Amino acid sequence: MDTEQFTPAQLSFFSIYSPPLGPTDETFGDQVVFYYSRSARDGRTKAKATADEERLSENEKLRQIGLAQGMAGFARNFSDGEPIEAVETEKSRILMHELEKDWWVLASIDLTRLPSSNKDREFEYSSREVSPAPLLLQQVLTAYRVFTLHHGPSLSDMYVKLPRDKFSALLDRFWTRFCRNWDVLLHGNPAIDIFGGLKLAAGGELGYGVGEEDWGSGDREVLEDLVHRTEGLVDLLVHRFGEAAPPEDDYANDDPSQITLHDARQGLPWLGCGNEPQAPDGLIFSGVGAITRSSVRDISTWVRDIYAYGEHAYGVKDNPHRQRRKRRRRIPPPIVSAVEASLDRASASADSRAPNQPQPSSEQTSSWNLGSSDKWVKYLTFGLASGGKRSDSPKRPDGPRPMNALQRQRQRENNGHFLVGYHGDLDRKPAENNDDNDSDTTINDSEIPEAERNTLRTVKVELAEKSESQNDDMDSRDSFVNRDVSSRLRVLVYVHRPFVYVFLFEQRTPSLSITGFYRELHKHLRPLHKSLLNSTSTQKVAQRIAAAHTSPPEPLSINPLNPPYAPPRNSPVFDLVYDPVNLTCHTSLPNIPEPGQVMPYEGSIGTTSSGRDAPPQWTRLEALNVHSHILFTLEHSSRHSNETERTSKTSRHWWVVWLRIPQPGENDGKHPRPEHCRTAFLVRKARDHVVEVQRSRGLGGAKGMASRVSSGMYNLVGARAGGVETEDGNEGKGWGSAAALAGGIGIDARKYVENLLSLNR
C-alpha cells in the first residue's frame, strides 16, 4: 500500500467559542476564543501565509462555526430539545459539546483514508479503530478538567477576570498542546477512559484498621498522621505506576547482541517515556477527605500525564501562569533591488579607475597590511597578544553524555526527588548547604551542575465539608458536586519509583521556602517506601488471595455424562467496576497493545504492569475486539435504563457480561436510579474456543479447580473485609446453581462483582 495514499485518522480542527460574545453578524467572529486547524498549522510550517490566505482561513473558521451551530439547531428539533453531540459524515466525525453554560467546543475528526478499490473513487474512508464519539468527548472533558485545575473554576470566571488577549493566550498554551498530542485512534485502555473516573491500583486503596495490615493499613496510618502533623498540609495523594526499580547491575550488559527489547526498555527512565498507565496502576491513597472526590479525580488525571511526560507535562517544568515573551522586532531585511544597484555602481566606478592607477606589488601590500595590523594589536594589548593565544585543543562536548544523563535520572528516581518543589540535593547534610561551591554532584567522574531552585506551582481544588466527608449515606454524593468555593493550593510532587506523592499545602505556608523542610519530607518518606512496595505489590496480592483458599468451587454438570466444568488456567476472568458516587474505577483488563509490539511468551498470566506478563492470546486484534464491544455495550445500555444485565459473545470468542448494580442504600424494592448504579464488566475467553485450542495441542480438557492467580488476582471472596467464604461449593452455594454456571462465562457474575466492590472505597 502506498504510504502517501494511506492517512490515519487525525484531528482536522478544534474550536472553543461562546455565542453571547458575538450576538450580531458584525461581531460573529468574536465568538471564537480558540481555534486550531491542522491545515493552517501545516501551511505555517511550509511558508508564511499571505494576507489573502489568512483572510481565507478566517472565513473558513467562521463558516465551520456557523455550520456547526446550524446543524445543532436543526437536530434539536428532532431530538425533543436534547442537544446533539456528534454528527457522522462520510469523511469525518464532528463533535459538539457544551463544556459549561454558553461555552461550546467543536471538533472535527478526519477518518482514516484508504486507497479505494472502486475505480470511480480515488479514496475511501473508514472509521475502523477510530474512537467513538462518546470516548472522544470524554477525552476532551478530561483535558478540560485538567485545564480548570491549573487556571480556575470555569471559563466564564477566567474571561471576566482576565483581559481578552491574556485569556486567549492561556487557552492557546494548553489546548494547542492538547490538539497536537490528541490520539483519536483506540489506544491505551478505552474501557477505563470512557468513564472518566478515579483509577485505582490493582489492590485498591490501602487497608483500614485492624485485620488489614497486609493490605497496608499501617501505611495508611503513617500517611494520615503525616498530614495531620505537618503545618499547612491540607491533603496528600499517593499513586503507583509500574514496578519497583531493578538493581543497577541489571542495566549493564557488555554484549549488545544479548540485549532484548525488554532490557532496552528497562534501561530507560521511569518517568517521561510516553508509557500508558497499565491496568494495575493507579491510586493507592486518596487522602484524608479534605478535598472533594472530583478534585481528587482531576489531580489523579494530571498525575497520569506526569507519569507519561515527566517534567514536560503541563504545569510541571513550564509555569502555566507565566506570560509568553513577545518577540522582539528584528532589523528588517535590506531591499534587494537597492543593494544590487548600489553594488553595480560601486563595481563600475572601481573598474573605471583601475587603468589609471598603478597596481602595488604583492610584497608591499602584504607587508603594509601585516605590519600595520601587528603594530596596532601590540599597542592596544601592551605586547601581550602574542603570548595570550590558546592552543588548538579539542572542545568539550556540551552537556553530559546520554548514558550518564539516563543513569543520573534513574538514580534520582530510585532515590526520590521533588519533580515540583525543591530541585537540590536532598541527601546532602544541612551543614554543607552553606558552601555554594559544593552544589555540584559527580556521577562517573563527570561533574553535572545541579540548580538549587524551588519551583512554585498552584492548583484550584474544591474543599470538602468536614461534616459530609465521613458520611456513608447516599446523601453524601452531594459533597462531590462543585458547590463549595474553590481554593488555590500550593502543590508539591515527590517521585520515588514506583510511587508519585502529591502534597497540597496552603498557599502561604512559610515552611515551603525552607530547604530543610523538603529534606525532612524526603527523610520521612524514605523508610515508608519498602513497606508500601510490599503492601501494594501485585505479586504479593496474588499470593495472599491464593493463601485465603477463595477459589470458586466446581459446579456440578447438568448432564451427568459430562464431567463438571473447570475453567482452564489460561482463561482468566478480567473485571471492570465503576462507582459513580465515589468516582472510582478498578479494572484488571489489559491495555490495547501498540502496533508492532512484541507479544510475551505464551502461557504467561497478566498480573503485572510491566508488559511481560500479559495474558496469552491478548493480541491487538483481541484487545480491539473486546474494548470496542465494551464501548458499544455502554452506549446501548445508556438508552435502556430498565436493563440490569446483559451477556454477549464477541466475534473473536470472548464472553462479555455487563451488570448494573444498585448502591447499598437503594436495595429497597424500588427501581434504582441508573445514574447512581455501579457498572461492572466481566470478560473471559469462551470455553468452546479454549477447549478447541487445547485439543488441537493434545492437552485435552482441563481438570481441577481454576487457578486463583490466573483470574487476575481478583477472586476476592473472603480475602478482604466484606467477602463471604464458602466451603460447600459442590452444592452450588455462594456461586449460583450448576444450571447458571455451566454455560456462558462460567461463574455467577453478580456475586463475583459484589465481592470485588471492597476495592472501590
Describe this structure in words.
The chain contains 19 helices and 21 strands. The model is unreliable at 362-370, 433-450, 467-484, 548-568, 600-614 and 699-742 (pLDDT under 50). The chain is α+β, with helices and mostly antiparallel strands. The chain has helices at 38-46, 51-76, 133-151, 155-161, 164-181, 190-193, 217-229, 261-266, 293-309, 336-353, 362-381, 402-415, 466-469, 515-536, 538-547, 620-638, 687-696, 738-741, 749-754; strands at 10-17, 32-37, 86-88, 92-100, 103-110, 112-115, 123-126, 198-199, 233-240, 282-285, 417-420, 440-443, 446-449, 458-462, 486-496, 499-505, 574-579, 584-587, 645-649, 654-661, 678-685. Helix 3 (133-151) packs across helix 9. The chain is globular.
Task: Provide a short characterization of the protein structure.
It holds the Pfam family Intu_longin_1. It contains 19 helices and 21 strands. The protein has 761 residues and is an alpha+beta fold.
Number of strands: 21
Spatial sequence of strands, sheet with the most strands = 8-18-17-21-20-19
Proportion of strand residues: 15-25%
> Pairing-aware structural class of the strands and helices?
alpha+beta
Biggest sheet features? 6 strands, mixed
Radius of gyration: 32 Å
Shape: globular
> Kindly state the mean pLDDT as a whole number?
75
End-to-end span in angstroms? 51 Å
Low-confidence stretches: 362-370, 433-450, 467-484, 548-568, 600-614, 699-742
Percent of residues in helical segments? 25-40%
* Tally of alpha and pi helices: 19
Layout of secondary structure:
Layout (H helix, E strand, L loop, with lengths): L9 E8 L14 E6 H9 L4 H26 L9 E3 L3 E9 L2 E8 L1 E4 L7 E4 L6 H19 L3 H7 L2 H18 L8 H4 L4 E2 L17 H13 L3 E8 L20 H6 L15 E4 L7 H17 L26 H18 L8 H20 L20 H14 L1 E4 L19 E4 L2 E4 L8 E5 L3 H4 L16 E11 L2 E7 L9 H22 L1 H10 L26 E6 L4 E4 L32 H19 L6 E5 L4 E8 L16 E8 L1 H10 L41 H4 L7 H6 L7
Parallel strand pairs: 8-18
Antiparallel strand pairs: 1-2, 1-5, 3-4, 4-5, 6-7, 9-10, 9-16, 11-15, 12-13, 14-15, 15-16, 17-18, 17-21, 19-20, 20-21
